[in-house]
Design goal:
- This protein is mostly helical.
- The chain has 25 helices and no strands.
């Protein structure tokens, strides 16, 4: 009797386990679920489903392909490329993989690899063919092969004449080849028909800023892009920079707050936070933000320069010298970094070092007023009044409206024994 009970118990347990297994989702169901998540824009949920499929069946080509798509949408282009290569090796059709792979190679700046790989590939699906040709056009333009880029655009438009994505690429190619007016005309035509195209507004902002130096026009275009897609971090960053240049520090701070909501830990976000803090004279806060950036990007010239400028404002001369010296070592032609390093040396009573640091800029013949004035101050400290007067004369020509330079020029005249002339200049 006991043996019969134990046998029945084992049988019931087996039935329960079998029913439990049957209750789990099949590979097909999880694959369908992942596809639905991707269609809804939930790449994270899709990736979880696809990884579950691949855990049970690593050789599932379609799951590999969809995981590549999900990873790309999550911003992991390198991971996406690996999955797409595996999908192809497992038999996924090139027709399906090629358009996405081309976008992945664009995102990872593998332009030559893209154009060599797909130079002769012909796709039968018109939308896929247009997408691939548009990516090819972008890659050719990035390599400076503008004739090939225009040919690829023509091919893309022939495959899908109504594609707004292709028309946007056409504008990008025109801009990259130097025809800004044509690019802007293409964008205006596109936006007349599709006014809600955020990327087109973004590109228009980029073009009117870079080619036309039209800051108000750029701000207007960027704001329209963000009204359509508030998650465009690069557009938020561009606006922060524009507001800093105006300068409108309150607007810059507000825009940076919006950027932090989208990409709080990105290096660009943190660097702009330090820039805003510096502009508002919140030097301790700028210092605190920059410490992490200096550690993570020890050779970034912009970070080193801003870090040195911040330390100089905090009167931390040794730290300023270290950071600015590294900036000059990385970018010897960066006149601004040389000027700040020279100022640091002068603050620490090292006039000879200040002059030596400024020498390449001075000898280049393109020194601006502040650099020449600093050189004059260093020469005066070193006891070379004649050189100081020469530098100040050049500075006065370079910046005729700078009264500080004219006052310094008068003082060097006093040092040179020309008190009456100095007094006349000071009265003027």
């Amino acid at each position: 009797m006991k043996h019969g009970v134990r046998t029945l118990g084992r049988a019931l347990l087996l039935v329960a386990l079998t029913l439990s297994a049957c209750g789990g989702k099949s590979d097909t169901e999880m694959l369908a679920s992942a596809t639905q998540y991707l269609a809804k824009g939930d790449a994270k949920a899709a990736s979880i489903q696809l990884k579950n499929v691949l855990q049970k069946k690593p050789s599932h080509a379609q799951a590999r392909f969809l995981l590549g798509r999900a990873l790309f949408e999550l911003g992991d282009a390198r991971g996406a490329e690996l999955e797409l290569v595996k999908a192809l090796d497992l038999g996924q059709a090139e027709e399906q993989v090629a358009p996405l792979m081309a976008r992945v190679l664009l995102a990872t700046h593998q332009y030559q690899k893209l154009t060599l790989r797909y130079a002769t590939l012909e796709l039968t699906d018109p939308a896929a063919a247009a997408e691939l040709a548009a990516s090819m056009a972008t890659a050719y333009a990035a390599q400076g092969a503008f004739d090939d880029a225009r040919t690829a655009v023509t091919k893309a438009l022939a495959a899908d004449p109504g594609s707004t994505a292709v028309r946007l690429v056409q504008a990008r190619v025109a801009a990259a080849s130097g025809d800004t007016d044509a690019a802007l005309k293409l964008l205006d035509d596109l936006l007349a028909g599709v006014p809600g195209h955020a990327e087109a507004w973004q590109l228009k902002g980029d073009l009117v800023l870079r080619a036309k130096a039209d800051r108000p026009g750029a701000i207007d275009a960027y704001r329209k892009a963000l009204a359509i897609d508030p998650k465009l971090a690069v557009v938020h960053a561009a606006l922060v920079t524009l507001y800093l240049q105006q300068p409108d520090l309150d607007a810059a701070a507000r825009q940076h707050d919006e950027l932090k909501k989208i990409a709080p830990r990105q290096g660009r976000t943190l660097f702009l936070e330090a820039q805003v803090a510096f502009a508002r004279k919140e030097f301790k806060h700028a210092h605190d933000v920059l410490q992490g950036l200096i550690q993570s990007a020890p050779n970034d010239v912009a970070v080193l320069y801003l870090g040195g400028a911040t330390e100089l404002q905090l009167d931390a001369l040794a730290q300023a010298e270290t950071l600015l010296s590294r900036a000059v070592a990385q970018a010897p032609d960066f006149a601004g970094a040389r000027r700040l390093l020279g100022a640091t040396y002068l603050r620490s009573d090292q006039a000879a070092k200040a002059l030596a640091t400024l020498r390449p800029t001075l000898d280049g013949g393109h020194a601006d007023g502040p650099t020449l004035a600093l050189a004059a101050q260093a020469a005066s400290r070193a006891g070379d009044v004649k050189a100081a007067q020469s530098y100040l004369a050049q500075a006065a020509k370079a910046a005729p409206g700078d009264t500080r330079i004219r006052a310094a020029q008068a003082l060097t005249q006093v040092a040179g024994g020309h008190a009456e002339a100095a007094l006349a200049d000071l009265q003027s």
